[in-house]
Structures are given as C-alpha cells and as structure tokens.
Design goal:
Helix 2 (64-80) packs antiparallel against helix 3 and helix 6 (187-196) packs across helix 10. Strands 1-2-5 form a three-stranded antiparallel sheet, with helices on one face. The protein has a three-stranded antiparallel sheet with strand order 8-9-12. A two-stranded antiparallel sheet has the order 3-4. It is elongated, with a radius of gyration of 27 Å. The chain is 46% helix and 10% strand. The protein is mainly alpha-helical. The protein folds into three domains: 6-50; 58-155, no CATH class; 187-372, Intergrase catalytic core (hpI Integrase, Chain A), CATH 1.10.443. The longest helix has 20 residues, at 136-155. The chain has helices spanning 38-50, 64-80, 86-99, 119-131, 136-155, 187-196, 201-211, 215-218, 267-279, 300-314, 321-335, 340-347, 352-359, 365-379, and strands at 6-10, 15-19, 22-24, 27-29, 32-35, 103-104, 107-108, 226-227, 232-235, 238-240, 248-250, 259-262.
Length: 383
C-alpha cells in the first residue's frame, strides 16, 4: 500500500474509505474516497499505485510550483527557437500559473507534490474551479495546456500517468454564459487612426470597422468572396491557430459564422474596393483581397501593430483589431436596435443569446421598454 494512504471500514456509513490525507501545518488534509465494497476500494488503490513513480528522488519531489516553473522554462526555449508563437507562450504562462491558485481539500495546488494530483481530484474538484465563469472554448484551451504540462511531468519522472487524460468537463449553462460586456468605441478614435494609416492598412482597417469580420476571416478573404455588384461579402472560411506552425485555413468560428455581410450602409467602402480591384489588375477569384507583396495573406499581428501605432500617433488610447468588430456592432445596434436576430446574423454569432450577452447593455432602456410594451399589447387580455 502507498505511504500515508489508509484503508478503513466506516461502520456507521457501511462503506470502505481510502484516506489519502496528509499532515499540512498540523492538520490532516487531503481527499477521502468511499466505496461500497472492499474490492472496489482495492481497485482504486491500484489506480493510485499506478500513478506513483518507482523512484523517490529528483523530480519526484517536485511541487506543483516547481513543475510550473520548469515547464514554462521549457516553453520559453521552444518560443526562442520559433516552435511556438508569442500568443501561445503567453497563454501557457497564464493558464499554468492560474492553476497554482486552485485548491484541493483546502490545500493550495501550488504546495502539493506533482504525484499527489489524481484523476479523481481533477474530475471532481479541480474541474469545478476550472469551468467556473468560462466559456466552453476557453475551458478546452485550459485543459489542453494543463494536459501538456502534465505530459511534461511524466517525461521528467514526476509521475507515470497524466491525470488530465480522458477528462471531460461538465459545463453548466451558467459557466458557459459568462461573457465580458465591452465598452463602445468612440468613432473619433477610428477616424483619427485612419488618418494616420497609409495604404493598404487604411482600407483594411476601414473594411474591418464597417463589416465586423473577425481578423481570421478578413485576412484570407478572396475576391471570389466579394460581390460588389450585389454589395455582399460571403464569409465561408477563416484562418485558424495563433502561431506560424499551427495556422491553417478552415471553417469559421461557429456554424452561424458562415454568413453574408451586406455593404448597403457603406457606399464609400464599396467604391474603394472597386478601385482596389482595378488597381490589382482585376485579380482571379482565388486571390486575396488584402495580400502581402508576395501575394500571401497578411499576418494578423502586423495589422494589430499598425493599428495600435496609429492610435498612439493620433493621441488616443490603443484599441485592438477586435474592437473594430465591436464598432461595427454599435453601428447595427444604432440603426436596428429592435432586430437582435439580424444583428446576430451579421456578426456571425452562434446564437442571439451571445449577442444579447455581449451587446445587450448598449440598447437604450426606452427601446427595451417600448419593445416589451409592444409584445404585451399583442398578447391581449388573458382574463
């Protein structure tokens, strides 16, 4: 049997208890698992034994804090030689350090030995903290990075198995609805930034602000996707991934992200796009609308840097490329505040619920009140 692990029968519960508690600051802390039969408890003990490496020196003595430090060093070396991008390295650093603040049976994860973390702890205690207030996509991202860190732990001999393998988060509706409400972007900021930008960055920025396309959707937009006669942009694909090694062209973010974005509200933009089409020599439908000099797609990081530099030069706080999408949303809400379905379709949101969560606070209260009153009037008398 493992050190510090006891198997006891609890008469008043009529169950067998596997007690994994250890002494921490004068108190016994840790998980206790209960089973109906001794055989079930024995099988659980074997699982625990399989997770314990045979050596008792070196990395086996690492705490979770040490593991995170060593793993981040490893990722930094990969970043230095270009194996991972800046955004991936930054997220790994954030996710792994955040993990240290989780608790297991009132014990801080940072203070636990790496081999002490079990799959049952991950499934029943850690996952509850990980999913809280996070969207499904973010939870999956955190799991991927933590799974990678524990694979590193296995390689270093801290343990023999990865407790994050086969873990499936049970997301509640509340955990999947935590969406940060954003602030409106002042049109003067965008106008000032446009004045500081040269081509092709100026037109690219204006296009993003007046169509709401995500960065990954815009960079691979081809002339075959743009129907200037019918004032329509067809969004059918997007650039996936955040570093050179992982970028690929695939489906847009959600099913509803496959959409048609109309340009009726932006006649000047349509004129500039027509001029660009002629300037590029009437390119084939598979050619990018905003290409680099060698004909490939623009790097998203380059666009962000240009926009932020323009804001700084104009004397305004920096905005992100995604803020241009929020600006487009503000245009839609100002013109058709009562038609949340159309707004959601133009933005390519997965559902109108997401649109309401993110932008609902922009709709004026009187409009909400009038809409509610109109709906109640249609109901009529019920008594």
């Amino acid at each position: 049997m493992l050190d510090n692990v006891k198997l006891n029968y609890v008469p008043y519960l009529k169950q067998w208890c596997v007690d994994e508690r250890v002494m921490v600051q004068g108190k016994r802390q840790g998980p206790r698992s209960y089973f109906n039969t001794k055989e079930e408890a024995g099988r659980y003990l074997k699982l625990l034994e399989n997770e314990k490496p045979n050596n008792s020196s070196g990395s086996f003595q690492w705490t979770m804090k040490t593991l995170v430090q060593e793993y981040i060093k490893e990722e930094k070396s990969r970043f230095d030689i270009g194996e991972v991008g800046d955004s991936v390295y930054t997220r790994v650093h954030f996710v792994c350090n955040s993990f240290l603040n989780y608790t297991v049976d009132s014990m801080l994860v940072a203070d636990l030995k790496v081999h002490y973390i079990t799959a049952s702890m991950v499934q029943f205690e850690i996952m509850q903290q990980l999913v809280k207030g996070r969207a499904k996509r973010t939870v999956q991202e955190h799991l991927a990075y933590l799974r990678g860190m524990f694979s590193f732990a296995v390689q270093k001999g801290c343990r023999t198995s990865n407790p994050f393998n086969e873990i499936k988060p049970k997301l509640t509706r509340e955990s999947n609805l935590s969406v940060k409400k954003i602030k409106k972007i002042d049109p003067h900021i965008i106008t000032a930034a446009l004045n500081e930008l040269s081509e092709p960055w100026q037109l690219m920025t204006k296009f993003a602000a007046l169509t709401g396309l995500r960065s990954g959707e815009q960079v691979i937009l081809t002339w075959g996707d743009v129907d200037l006669d019918n004032l329509t942009v067809h969004v059918t694909k997007a650039l996936k991934g955040k570093s050179k090694q992982y970028t690929k062209i695939g489906d847009p973010k959600t099913y509803n992200s496959r959409r048609r974005v109309y340009l009726d509200h932006a006649p000047e933009l349509v004129t500039e796009l027509k001029e660009l089409f002629i300037k590029q020599g009437r390119p084939a439908p598979d050619k990018y609308v905003f290409p680099t000099r060698d004909g490939s797609y623009q790097k998203r990081r380059r666009k962000r840097e240009k926009l932020q530099a323009a804001c700084k030069k104009a004397g305004y706080d920096q905005i992100t490329w995604h803020d241009l999408r929020h600006f487009y949303a503000s245009i839609l809400i100002a013109r058709i505040p009562e038609d949340i379905k159309t707004i959601s379709e133009q933005l390519g949101h997965g559902s109108t619920r997401i649109t309401e969560e993110v932008y609902g606070h922009w709709i004026d209260d009187p409009l909400k009140e009038n809409s509610t009153r109109a709906k109640l009037q249609r109901v009529g008398s019920v008594l």
